């Protein structure tokens, strides 16, 4: 019999006949007092039972590599105890191995949490899982003494003594700055200011002023108006012009854009998609194909609307390039003798090495016309090549190589094979003769006209015609695959640059080998450049720009226009390996 049952038995033996409380003198009779004592004993026993449940209930566990959730579930099954916990807490505990027999719940849980960052509390039939709290050592706070800020005040005026608002006052070498108010007053208060600090005063349209703080607490400054601000010059074309006169739009391509250009790019094709208002049209993928650059106006591949190119201050004029025309008989160059690549700007642009280019500027407005007249009617493109640097710059040698691969994509387009071609040609020839009643150059190629004339009858149909014995060859050639290739481009560069006190130099050599789409076609370019600049006197400079290149081309990409007209039944070679030359 447990303690609670004993208390209830004792309570039943008491026969409280008189349970009336007397409040007159604030007292109770003896039997009532006895009942109250037994009630207190009962409550105390109940409390003892609550705290003793975890020790009186017995469990038996034998589990290996089990999660705490599984252990809790087994204890609940044997004892009916309920567990309250946070899943995130149980994730911190590792799996447990426990083997106990007929032990209390308290002992079992103590064994589980022996090496765990968790703890438990048993309240009645409920077990609360909580995280072990560790006391952290409280250290004495570190007292940091902050430096006393130094305050500097002042007023900024112009040469007339009027306050200047919006002047930026910066402590040089730091990010601490402030601005003057409407009265030209400013205040600097920072621990970063000392006697050696330099105060920098900057404002739009005024010269920058620099003053040492020293021991002064008040620093007044008089700003000087920059009279020459509107007379500053910018590089336009091959000369200079006042900045106030440059009213139009200028596009600029710097070193980064040029460095990231595709392998097969030229100066002209580099502009494609890089500058607004500039249209670039490339005639074909040939390494010698003309490139049309239109700054404004209608585009044309004939070169009639090309801009003026200025390379290192030297104007280069565009001439029309050779244009291949498709006629009914052949592919041939235009008969216009003025269309030649000799001396053309396209040659200068193709031979110009992108590695040597420092920047590209495009002038698109009327200010370019004011400088170059009608030559700039289609815009001006300025190309500036790299230079060395004065000031005892040691020689810098750079060696680079680039390799590019181009893959053809015909978007699913393909030519007929031999059987498809023969079927279509035969059907077409029979239909043409049957409809017209006569033979022509096309139908005589495939059908036997003499055999038809010997029929001596007007009764015939499309199947009556006889195929000419020599009408078709026995080959089956994919001329696109036979004649074309995926080009590989290679380029090698060697540059040396440097400078002395009054001299700067830049020297470069390069070799570019560009394959064409048609096999054995391509372009090989070898060239070099020398840029030297010397300061002869305070106001005298001497510059020398030399460039030279040799380009050997074998342009066969016009064959891309011929291939659609070559019959697939014609073999490329005879049985003995010689080139097939029979005329069809």
Please, could you describe this protein's structure?
- This protein has 584 residues and is α+β, with helices and mostly antiparallel strands.
- It has five domains: 3-53, no CATH class; 57-131, 3-Layer(bab) Sandwich (Phage tail protein beta-alpha-beta fold), CATH 3.55.50.30; 150-228, Carboxypeptidase-like, regulatory domain (Immunoglobulin-like); 234-385, Ferric Hydroxamate Uptake Protein, Chain A, domain 1, CATH 2.170.130; 418-475, no CATH class.
- It is 21% helix and 30% strand.
- The chain contains 14 helices and 28 strands.
- A five-stranded mixed β-sheet has the order 15-22-23-18-19. A five-stranded antiparallel β-sheet has the order 24-25-26-27-28, with no helix packed on it.
- A hairpin with a 6-residue loop joins β26 (503-515) and β27 (522-537).
- α1 packs antiparallel against α2.
- The protein is flat, with a radius of gyration of 49 Å.
- Mean pLDDT is 76; it is low at 1-8, 13-28, 44-52 and 320-343.
Largest sheet: 5 strands, mixed
Shape by Cα distribution: flat
Strand order of the largest sheet: 15-22-23-18-19
The CATH class of the largest domain is Mainly Beta
CATH superfamily of the largest domain: TonB-dependent receptor, plug domain
- Total beta strands: 28
Helix content: 10-25%
């Amino acid at each position: 019999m447990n303690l609670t049952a004993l208390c209830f038995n004792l309570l039943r033996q008491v026969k409280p006949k008189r349970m009336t409380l007397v409040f007159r003198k604030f007292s109770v009779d003896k039997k009532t007092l006895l009942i109250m004592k037994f009630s207190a004993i009962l409550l105390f026993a109940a409390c003892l039972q609550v705290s003793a449940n975890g020790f009186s209930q017995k469990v038996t566990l034998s589990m290996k590599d089990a999660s705490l959730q599984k252990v809790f579930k087994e204890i609940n099954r044997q004892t009916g105890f309920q567990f309250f916990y946070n899943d995130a807490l149980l994730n911190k505990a590792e799996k447990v191995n426990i083997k106990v027999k007929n032990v209390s719940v308290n002992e079992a849980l103590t064994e589980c949490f022996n090496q765990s960052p968790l703890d438990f509390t048993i309240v009645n039939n409920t077990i609360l899982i909580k995280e072990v709290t560790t006391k952290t050592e409280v250290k004495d706070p570190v007292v940091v003494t902050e430096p006393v800020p130094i305050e500097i005040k002042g007023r900024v005026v112009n040469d007339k003594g009027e306050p200047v608002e919006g002047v930026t006052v910066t402590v040089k070498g730091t990010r601490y700055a402030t601005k003057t108010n409407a009265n030209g007053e400013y205040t600097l208060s920072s621990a970063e200011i000392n006697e050696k600090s330099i105060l920098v005063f900057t404002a739009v349209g005024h010269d920058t002023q620099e003053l040492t703080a020293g021991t002064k607490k008040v620093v007044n400054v008089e700003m000087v108006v920059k009279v020459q601000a509107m007379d500053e010059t910018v590089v336009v074309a091959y000369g200079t012009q006042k900045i106030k006169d440059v009213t139009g739009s200028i596009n600029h391509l710097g070193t980064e854009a040029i460095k990231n250009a595709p392998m097969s790019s030229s100066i002209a094709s580099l502009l494609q998609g890089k500058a607004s208002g500039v249209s670039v049209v490339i005639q074909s993928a040939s390494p010698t194909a003309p490139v049309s650059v239109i700054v404004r106006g209608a585009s044309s591949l004939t070169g009639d609307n090309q801009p003026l190119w200025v390379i290192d201050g030297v104007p280069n004029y565009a001439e029309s390039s050779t244009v291949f025309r498709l006629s009914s008989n052949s592919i041939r160059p235009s008969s216009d003798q003025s269309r030649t690549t000799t001396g053309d700007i396209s040659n200068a642009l193709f031979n110009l090495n992108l590695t040597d280019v420092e920047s590209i500027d495009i002038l698109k407005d009327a200010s370019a016309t004011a400088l170059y007249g009608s030559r700039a009617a289609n815009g001006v493109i300025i190309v500036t090549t790299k230079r060395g640097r004065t000031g005892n710059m040691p020689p810098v040698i750079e060696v680079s190589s680039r390799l590019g691969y181009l893959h053809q994509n015909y978007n699913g387009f393909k030519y007929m094979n031999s059987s498809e071609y023969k079927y279509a040609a035969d059907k077409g020839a029979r239909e043409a003769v049957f409809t017209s009643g006569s033979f022509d150059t096309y139908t005589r190629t495939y059908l036997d006209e003499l055999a038809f004339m010997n029929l001596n009858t007007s009764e015939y149909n499309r199947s009556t015609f006889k195929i000419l014995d020599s009408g078709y060859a026995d080959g089956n050639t994919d001329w696109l695959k036979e004649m074309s290739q995926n080009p590989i481009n290679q380029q090698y560069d060697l540059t040396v640059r440097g400078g002395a006190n009054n001299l700067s130099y830049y020297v470069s050599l390069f070799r570019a080998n560009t394959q064409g789409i048609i096999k054995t076609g391509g372009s090989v370019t070898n060239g070099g450049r020398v840029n030297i600049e010397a300061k002869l006197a305070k106001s005298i400079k001497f510059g020398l720009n030399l460039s030279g290149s040799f380009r050997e081309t074998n342009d066969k990409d016009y064959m891309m226009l011929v291939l659609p007209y070559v019959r697939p039944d014609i073999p490329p070679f005879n049985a003995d390996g010689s080139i097939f030359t029979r005329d069809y």
